[in-house]
Amino acid sequence: MKTIWRSLIIASFSFLLFKCNHVTSETELRWMSNPRLKEYIHGDSINYKFLKADSLRFIGEHELALTEYQTLSNKLELSSVEDNYRLNQQIYCQLSLKDTVYVKKRLNQIGKLSYGGVSPDYLLNVGMYLDLSGDTDSSLSILYKAKDLYSTRYGNNHFKHWLSEIQLGKVYRYSTLEYDSVQAIFDRTVNQVRNQNIPIEVGWPAYFHLADINRINRDYVTGLTNVSEFIELITNDKIRFKKIYYEALILRAKLTSNSGESDVALQIFESVLEDLELLNDGKLSVDLLPNIYNEILISATRLKYVNAEVFNEYIEELKKFAQDSPLPSDVNINRLIGRYYSGIKDYERTIEYTEAALSEYIKGVTRRRLWIEAYAILAHAHTQVGNFEEALEYSYLSLTYDTSLQDTDFDWERVFSPELTSVKFKFVSYRRLGDAYSGNYAKSQNISDLQKALKIYQLIDSIALRNTNAIEEEALLNFFGEGFGMYSKAIDAIYHLYQIGHSEYYLDLATYFFERSKNLLMHRELLLNNTEYFPEVPIELRNQEKRLNKEISILKNAGISENSAKLKELLQNQKKHFDYIQNRHPDYYRSKYSQEMADYEEVKRYSDSLKRAVIQFHWGQDYIYVLSIAKDVVFNRVQLNSEILENISAYSKLTGSTKSLFGQDTFQKFKEVSNELFNQLLSFHNTFGEYKEILILPAGAITTIPFESLLITSNKTVEINYKNLDYLINHYEVSYAHSLKTHLSNNRATDFNELSKVIAYSFSEKLNAQSSSSNNELPNSWIEVQKIEQMNANRQSVFRYGASASKRNFVQDIYSGSHIVHIAMHASSSLTNRLENNIEFRHSGGNTNTSFLYGYEFLAENIKTELVVLSSCETGMGKEYQGEGTFSLNRAFVQSGVPNVLSSLWSISDRSSTDIMGGFYLNLFSDMNPSTALRLAKITYINNSDQITSHPYFWAAFNLFRG
Questions:
Q1: What is the DSSP string of 845-869?
Q2: In Å, how far are 293, 304, 438, 644, 706 from 623, measured between CA atoms?
Q3: Please, which residues have CB within 8 angstroms of residue 315's CB and are 6 or more apart in sequence?
Q4: How far is CA 485 from the centre of its chain?
Q5: Phi-psi domain of 737 (left: phi exceeds 0; alpha: psi -120 through 50; beta: other)
Q6: Of 360, 542, 671, 901, which residue has the fewest beta carbons closer than 10 angstroms?
Q7: pLDDT digits (tens, 9 = 90+) for 813-857
Q8: How many CB atoms are closer than 10 A to CB 414?
Q9: 747: Cα within 13 Å, side-chain hemisphere
């Protein structure tokens, strides 16, 4: 009976193997993981040989598969159909290995042998051969024919159809750089794998190419999701997929490095190296190590500091590989050395080694993206050394190869043509061209060069904006960070053009680009929270987005891996939600990424009507730019040299710590640094005229400066006395804003009086008022909230102390409606992770346990209150992202729609904060606005303090952000 079953099984597989030109079924593709199948097909049989060769081919082991097919050529019992199939698959392997020596001759031979019409396998190989020969158009034409023939013979869901789709995607990717078409093709194939219409053995290249296209398009979050999904699919079968598995890990590391986490990427690479050493697989090491070393060095050059010793060690390893066999086409030693010198800003050597790499690219067969990279690096390097003509030439070459217009007769001098807006570009390539024109202006003083540079930056901004509809915040933050340098260059070009012509047109552009350089995400969230905008968008859709944002943030804060099933499901649901919103509410969707910014005329009207000077800062690469709109307009720049950096750093230390209070030297140092910073940043205050209010929009390290504590004049007295110094607060009322767009959207007049409803939270309760600090108590928080309660007559107000000041109660109270929310609790702000900012509440079960409310938990909510007071430590501090600003607890409340948020810059004195808060509320309930109330409370505190406790440490930490 066993013999009969064996005969039936072999007969069945013989039929499957050679039916329809030897079609390999999904079951056959999984032969290695099926020991029962091997039992019935003898290892020396033709069936077994074909199965083994086909399986090796489908998992990408083309060299091993080629050996198996060549072994089959010795089998005299092969039929003509079998031999035709064998030759086609052998050629496929040779083409995949780029071994084309005998391919053309064999293709002619197979073309004559094809039975029953043209074989789609034959057409697939011809298409691949034409692509390798450089005939891309003919290649695509033939591959489409192969795809149609596969579809006709086997149907659209057959894996052979998708195999031709994958090959089409490869040609589009490497030969045409049509990345939109590539992504669409591989998206379709990956979806078929997910739907289990085709096996992973066939579809795995689609995962790789899709993730890598995500990398090229700078959508690193999606790329990481795709490659992580693939790794998860093959992890249980990684022995069979050994090479592919480690290549997937390498791709994950590359995406991680691209997303700005080069240190994490290096850890992944080191882990792969350890695995390879344990595996002791010489063939696998030879295949993978050059690429790993290559990527380690690329990741290392992305870090601010590259260890020269380690760099040289890996270069030497690569040189050893090169002695034994040619390095992979992507691995080029001169390229890596050029990147290294670019990283350490030795641009002469950058040019030397990158040009050597380029000459090697031109001689050999390399991917065009390496040409693009070389052109781009050379454009930047020549700009830095002042060779602007060469820089322009390489910039145009970079653009040519970076678009679908690469092989056309397009005149790149028409780079500003409107027709270019329909072409997908890499904005970083444009930036290099703009930088070259800008540099050429510095050399030649030709205004037309500067005007061209500005037009390019405007075009970049327009193009880049299309990419800001990415779903994930990480992707957006990385995108804005890459484009940040362009905003600095644009502002610099505008600065020069304004100095030449003093035209309001340039003031309008300056206002726009100052705004574009920060807080675009904040605008997006404000729009989500404010239902007055686009009331036709159902509230449940807005709430769904908030819920998804919050759940994703919670998982990420918990350190959940990006390839976890739950996180992947949330990201997919988020994408579906955005697609739905885009289709059903396109105007609302577009407005979230709108280019509309506050213009100069609008800001001037605002400034004049309120007699409030508006001062915007932009922290550039070489300068701090200042745009002041008041009685008169000032557009200045301050060189970002060691002197001002040392002053900012010193002032933060002098004001934010009690260590700087005593000593004659310290007192003199404080006066000197404070006055110097005032002269460097606000020397133009005489242009304010009668304006006595200042609204400051800080940037970069300036966010750490409490401007109201700067000294307008330097007191010459020797005696230590901080009380009688000429602080800015004595002359002006100072407040702050994250961006003009959010401020003008949130700005509204509000009456604060004794009838205002208040919600106030104290970490400590009366019985613990004298508890020691070792118990984590804040005894003066009770006194602070008590004062507010005594001043407030509104019976609907809520005052909670100690155990009652829990997170659970706060979440309920905050949505009950109030005018003022006061939080006198512990708080923590992270300078490295925006998701770690939190407020520490009491746990509802007792006084000793605490519960944390994270910023991301409420930033997507619409908090209906006019003022939030964060009487806690460092609530105005947080991680700064280029192109977006500082992520602080302050920002989280502003982003929730709160028009006034009072926060702190450092760990404040418990006792002095109680005095200032008491005075602040007394003024506020006397119908003053928050900014005036805070200024008067600070001045009162200074007047009532002694010579030491009048130091800014005790009163300057608090500042008010107006939306």
A1: TEEEEEEEEEHHHHTTS----SEEE
A2: 37, 20, 15, 10, 20
A3: 297, 333, 336, 337
A4: 15
A5: beta
A6: 360
A7: 887 778 899 998 888 888 888 888 889 888 765 545 568 888 888
A8: 10
A9: 18
